Structure to design on (500 residues):
């Protein structure tokens, strides 16, 4: 396969990248494309993470693609089932021949004279690079570093005699039978690991610095399974999808308008699960409002069952240091451990850490402004997928890919060669994500910022984005289109800067 120029290059073969390829085939038939995947398998997150119990904390009727129904009984699916769904999609739509594995995109340089991207790619992790070119670049590389997770510095770590594991780098066939396990963290990964590891471990302790809101939900969606029996598959899927979208939005809106009432409801559900003797105030009552950080979903109360049966426990305290046999806490208490798992978060990065250069000028993403949650100011012919924080990732991934196709077809129809958001006079006013989680705040300087109003804001609202992305006017005065003989300044009406 010697071809190196394509109409579209898609970076990443996870949920977003495979979905993008299908949208491209459906809406832009005849366009050549290639998916560049840095790993040796498709699936992204759902192939990378292999720790016990790995699952989605979103329902698959909204995390699934809008064009391919999720047919399994369980709506809260495990990693292998999601990976199989992605692989099945790629096979069904003939995507596999268009994927190159072991191809890591390291830099992308836009050349206005030729209206092309020049992409430098590392092959199979080696030093040698290959050059690709394309007319449009679609970034589906996720939002975190695949090579490593985030682990804080723990004093005395080298003193600990057992294994210290980050879930992102889980050893294959790792045996934890009969072991005392401490899981550091209180996010989705910790909530998944703790009940899953009680099958073999002697005991599992979730050690958290501060609590998280947790809610249980049935792993199976009875309404969805009932609709599938009564209605055509796609219709049943569509109805279930909208049921869940509207329910998610209603809950989220309620957390914004009546946070105290939502907080009390969430805590009352936890009290019902764990009974009067459990200290819910200490271990499950956060200091922030619901959805200021992501709400943790546990299927079929599995975490609460593990706590009730004393197979697992929760400790809320600060770590003083690791010791030979476990962890000493600030309170003076020591937790014994054979294995310590650092479920301490992801190391976030923008567009896979790709270095972006436009006409010889390397851009710092933090100096730029988001446009419609799909493009970035000053960067032409590039879309980037970043999902919702308050709903399923794929809802926005689908919309972003559809929007890319809409722009591509407009370029072809009007004989344009470039589409570029121009934020002339627009001031950044907030971070890319309005989320208080530590792992998010640590990384916001690597991401673009937001403006004050549309189209420079990220709405976190799927129904609003449908109108903005699918039905909104393309030529809105902010997205500038140019033909081959024109310059961006000419079509944007920007006066040239006088030479000093």
């Amino acid at each position: 396969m010697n071809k190196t120029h394509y109409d579209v290059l898609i970076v990443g073969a996870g949920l977003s990248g495979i979905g993008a390829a299908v949208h491209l085939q459906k809406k832009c038939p005849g366009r050549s494309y290639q998916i560049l995947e840095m790993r040796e398998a498709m699936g992204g997150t759902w192939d990378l993470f292999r720790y016990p119990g790995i699952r989605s904390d979103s329902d698959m009727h909204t995390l699934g693609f809008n064009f391919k129904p999720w047919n399994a009984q369980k709506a809260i699916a495990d990693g292998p089932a999601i990976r199989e769904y992605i692989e099945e999609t790629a096979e069904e739509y003939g995507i596999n021949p268009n994927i190159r594995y072991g191809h890591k995109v390291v830099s992308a340089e836009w050349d206005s004279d030729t209206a092309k991207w020049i992409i430098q790619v590392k092959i199979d992790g080696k030093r040698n690079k290959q050059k690709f070119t394309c007319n449009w670049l679609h970034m589906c590389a996720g939002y975190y570093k695949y090579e490593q997770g985030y682990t804080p510095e723990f004093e005395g770590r080298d003193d600990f005699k057992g294994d210290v594991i980050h879930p992102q780098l889980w050893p294959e066939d790792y045996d934890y039978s009969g072991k005392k396990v401490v899981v550091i963290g209180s996010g989705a990964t910790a909530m998944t690991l703790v009940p899953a590891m009680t099958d073999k471990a002697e005991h599992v302790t979730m050690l958290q610095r501060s609590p998280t809101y947790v809610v249980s939900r049935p792993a199976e969606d009875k309404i969805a399974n009932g609709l599938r029996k009564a209605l055509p598959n796609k219709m049943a899927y569509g109805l279930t999808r909208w049921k869940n979208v509207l329910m998610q939005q209603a809950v989220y809106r309620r957390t914004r308008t009546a946070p105290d009432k939502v907080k009390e409801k969430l805590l009352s559900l936890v009290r019902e699960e764990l009974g009067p003797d459990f200290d819910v105030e200490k271990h499950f009552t956060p200091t922030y409002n619901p959805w200021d950080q992501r709400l943790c979903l546990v299927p079929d109360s599995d975490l609460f069952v593990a706590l009730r049966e004393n197979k697992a426990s929760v400790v809320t305290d600060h770590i003083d240091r690791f010791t030979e046999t476990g962890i000493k806490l600030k309170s003076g208490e020591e937790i014994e451990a054979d294995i310590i798992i650092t479920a301490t978060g992801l190391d976030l990065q923008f567009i896979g850490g790709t270095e972006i250069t436009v006409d010889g000028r390397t851009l710092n993403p933090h100096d730029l402004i988001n446009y419609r949650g799909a493009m970035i100011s000053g960067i032409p012919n590039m879309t980037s997928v970043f999902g919702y924080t308050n709903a399923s990732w794929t809802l926005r991934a689908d919309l972003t890919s559809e929007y890319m196709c809409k722009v591509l077809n407009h370029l072809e129809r009007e004989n344009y060669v470039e589409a570029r958001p121009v934020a002339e006079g627009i001031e950044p006013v907030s971070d890319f994500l309005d989320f208080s989680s530590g792992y998010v705040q640590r990384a916001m300087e690597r991401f673009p910022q937001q403006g004050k109003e549309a189209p420079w804001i990220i709405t976190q609202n799927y129904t609003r984005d449908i109108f903005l992305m699918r039905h909104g006017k393309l030529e809105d005065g902010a997205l500038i289109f140019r033909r081959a003989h024109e310059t961006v300044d000419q079509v944007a009406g920007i006066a040239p800067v006088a030479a000093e």
